[in-house]
Amino acid sequence: MTHDISKVSVSLESHIHYRAGQYVSIQSSDTDIPARCYSFAQSNTPGGNQLVSFFVRGVTGGRMSNWLIDPLNVNSKVTLSAANGDFYLRDQSAPVLCVAGGSGLAPIIALIEEAIQNNSAIVDQPLTLLMGVRSQRDIYYQDQINSLGTQWRNEFRFTPVLSDEPVASNWLGHRGFVTNYIDQKTSLGATGYLCGPPPMIDAAMIKMQENGMDLNRIFFDKFLDQSGIKP
User: pTM of the full predicted structure?
Assistant: First the structure.
């Protein structure tokens, strides 16, 4: 999908049941690489899914992520844990503010898909999706997001924000840190859903509260990749 994020699909022997926003631990069946956790990048179906997908970012030192996206490992066997996590849609009667960083877009997509699929009342609320990436080449899944937007009954606003785009480029959109675009209009009375690197999550929580969002209405899933873990 981008130079460092791939969509990895896993075909299961039996159906798995989960809530959109949850994650599983994935481990290679034939190596000693430690298992890593990844969020589902799709909603579930009433009968469960037998083909599941994840957004995986390759990082320096990320043994599991780099193994998963290596073309040489296509059709290799992996083991998945049961679904875990409590990152799921809450209040159906409030506007929604989603902030995603990098591969943290995966559970956000699953949440939106599930709401549309289930014809949830929350689809009648305005939704803002802020996506933080470094440059234009890091923007992905845009067509699918736009398609979801056409199915959302109320206003659906998708805003990519580039933090490291060359000044002289042809980009006419938003620049800087994605958290700089959290404002009172999108925060006051809304429910927040955050997924991405811990520094982004922490900064977003502060900005949301500064703009009137209650702390107990902010839900998040922090992604910590191997590049941030010292041996």
Answer: 0.93
